[in-house]
Structures are given as C-alpha cells and as structure tokens.
Design brief:
Length: 299
C-alpha cells in the first residue's frame, strides 16, 4: 500500500516523508499519535469549529510541502487563508481524499495554496485505489487490486492475498470506469465519475420521477463558475419535490438569487416541467468532524 502511495507521489514530484500538513479531524492527544506524527514528518490541523482561524495561521506558518486531507476541511482552510490574506509558500500539491470535489472548488483551493489539487480515491482497507494524473484523470493505480463496476457500484478484489481473492468487496460507492487511453499514471482505466455513496444517490420529484443527486453538484458548479463564489454545501431532501440547500456562506447573488439560479438550472438540465421547491439556508461554521456528505436523502 505504501509502495502505491510512493509511486503516485513520485509521479507528481513529491516524496513520502516530506513535510505534510494533514487536514483532518482533531488530532488524537496521545503520546503514540505524537511520536507517529513526528516520525512521519507531519502535523495534523483541524480547521473547523473554535480556533479555526488560528489553526490555519499555524498551518501556513509551518510551511508544509504538501497538504493532505478531507476536501471539505481543505476548502474550509482555503477560505480562511483567503479571508485573512495569508500567502502559503512552498506548497507543491494539495491532495484531497475521501469526499468528492467540484471543479470550481478545486480551482479555488489551487489558487489559494498556489499548487495543483490532486484527487485521491481510496478506502481504509486498500488505501489508494485511484489517483489523479496531471491531465485530470483519476487512474486506477494499485496493480494488486481488481476493480470492477456492477450496477454502478464499485467492487474491489484483492488478488494477491490468498485468503482474500475470492471476496469482491463492495465499497458502497457509486462509480463509472472508462479507458482513458492515458499512460501517465498506473492503468489507463480511470474512474470517470465519482458519484458518492450508493445509498444516497437519488433525489425524488415525486414517487415516480427521480434524478441522480450528482446533478446538484453540476448546478452548483455552474453557479460558482459564473459568480466566482466558492462555498461548501449540503442538500437535504425531506419531502417529494422539496430540497433544502445549506451553504457555508452568503452567496453573492443572495439567498433568493441562488434559489432562482438553481431552480432554472435544474429545470433546464432535467427538462422538468413539474413543480418543485428549493430553499437556500446559510449555516456558518457548522462543519463537523469526519466525512462531509453532499446529499442527504431524508424522505
Ligand atoms: Zn491520465
């Protein structure tokens, strides 16, 4: 697993053991954790809740060679750094893992940290499964794993460990795989779209009409592209045709402006004629620890 990680990093001019700022949940306050972080030349930063601004100042001052962590927390750190006019120097790359990221968010993070943003797709069991090349493909990179897609769901088989190679492990993620023809990193087979957890995939207009929640991501990306805004968001469905959009800061077009934009964008993307409601709400500083979910199905 470490060899795969080292291979991906080397391809981007990074090395394991370089100064790593790990943008993660709160660091464990134990001696073991401290020794481990010291030996791995990394420091854990948790830029949320109380003291987030101070944490980001510390992060920038520590001058990491790369950042690694949860997309939503890295985005949080980037927003604070921009707001406070901090200018991170010497960052070679920002590696986002565990959560999907929109192109507009990626662009924003890259600008703030002055470094390319690379996506990683992995799991606790297998570590890195796919990693981004400089052309933006998410390549399958672990030669000891067999990755397949069945009914839109990712299945991973460890073909080396004898005790494991009969088990097709269902990760619970919805993905698509295509042959990119690109030979830059790992296999030419790449994940063309990471659609999130299989369990939280569909939004319903009515009991018969549903659409994939990834459409919300595309609509919000279009909004951010057009306005230059960048924020985190969560969409929650509580009733048929009713969606709550929670955003981390006031959109530049205002709450109603964003509502109108999303409504007309979804209508034209989905060719919808049915009635549906979108309510935008602003929550500031509401980021919890752990993974951030974009779409919550609460029907
Ligand atoms: Zn590629």
């Amino acid at each position: 697993m470490l060899a795969v990680r080292a291979y991906c990093y080397n391809k981007h001019g990074l090395k394991l053991g370089q100064r790593e700022a790990r943008v993660w949940g709160r660091a464990a306050n134990s001696l073991t954790a401290k020794i481990r972080d010291f030996l791995l030349n990394r420091k854990v930063f948790y830029p949320a809740e109380n003291g987030a601004e101070e944490t980001v100042e510390k992060l920038v001052k520590w001058s990491p060679e790369y950042l690694y962590g949860y997309t939503s927390l890295i985005l949080e750190a980037a927003q604070i750094a921009q707001k406070k006019g901090l200018k991170p120097r010497g960052v070679k790359a920002v590696i986002c893992t565990a959560e999907s990221i929109l192109p507009a968010q990626k662009k924003f993070i890259a600008e703030v940290f002055g470094a390319p943003v690379l996506e990683e797709y992995g799991s606790t069991e297998f570590d890195v499964i796919a990693f981004e090349c400089t052309s933006g493909h998410l390549h399958l990179v672990n030669p000891w794993l067999w990755v397949e897609v069945e009914e839109g769901a990712a299945l991973v088989t460890d073909v080396v460990r004898v005790s494991q190679n009969l088990i097709r492990y269902q990760l619970g993620d919805s993905i698509g795989i295509i042959n990119s023809g690109c030979g830059e990193l790992g296999s030419p087979w790449t994940i063309d779209e990471l659609r999130g957890r299989t369990i939280q995939q569909f939004a319903y207009i009515n009991p018969d009409q549903k659409f994939h929640a990834v459409v919300f991501g595309r609509a919000l990306n279009a909004y951010m592209d057009q306005t230059g805004d960048c924020f985190k968001f969560t969409i929650s469905q509580t009733d048929y045709g009713e969606f709550g959009v929670y955003v981390s800061k006031t959109p530049s077009l205002g709450r109603e402006g964003l509502e109108t934009f999303l409504k007309s964008d979804l209508q034209s993307r989905l060719l919808l004629r049915e009635h549906f409601k979108i309510r935008v709400e602003i929550y500031e500083g509401g980021m919890g620890e752990g993974k951030h979910t974009y779409f919550i199905q609460n029907l």
